[in-house]
Sequence to fold (255 residues):
Amino acid sequence: MDLDQQSKSFIQITFLIIGVLILGVFLNAYVYSFFSIKAYQILFLIFIFLFLFSIMAILMIVLFYLRIYQYRKILGNPDWFLKGLHLLYPLMDFICRIFCFSYSPLQRFFITTNNICIQSKNIKVLPEEILILTPHCLQKSTCSVRVTHDPSYCKQCGQCNVNELVQLQNKYHVSLAIATGGTLARHAIQQYHPKFILAVACERDLISGIIDVTQVPVIGILNIRPNGPCKDTKVNIDQLEYWIREISIKERLVF
Fold:
């Protein structure tokens, strides 16, 4: 099976966790061999069993998620895998930070897997119930017009993607919010009460949003950063339009 960097990162961190668990098994076995009190022996046997069970469970979970990522298909209830992602990610992120691993590939793995799980639920909503949530760094940094309060203020000069986002909003009658941070993003969700969110951001912000917003399905779309993070970023408009058409009730997409 040909694995990309995201899959390799996911596997590396997984086996690191398994290695720690195996080390725990050997430590418990060592202590068990030198303790003669029966109660302690029983206790350590239980610990060894739990460690072995955890290793097997992690291996099974990893195989399931790798299969989802590689074949873009879900076997079973997508909600189970979404909940599993929410539980697994903080642990793997913690491991990455401790051992100074690059966690961007892992973040992309989780975002892609989240999108596959959401898509497999085959959710259909009205276009008006979709919220496109984007960061303010999509706007040209030298622009004198502030569009975070109202994207319709855009002068449509074509120097950034805001013009195209407004065109998508008008074409499909979806909601559009451009936020400067997590607080304004949450405010936009409360304001529009969407049934589906198409979120555009960097890996870190997408992961944070996907984990925080559990009551509404979120599709994560990575922004493009030709000038580095948080400055004059871009988004693939065709990809956004694909998702709008994918989740919208088809009868309402008549122009």
About this structure: The domain at 123-252 is CATH 3.40.50 (Rossmann fold). The helical segments are 5-34, 38-71, 78-98, 104-120, 162-172, 182-192, 203-212, 237-247.
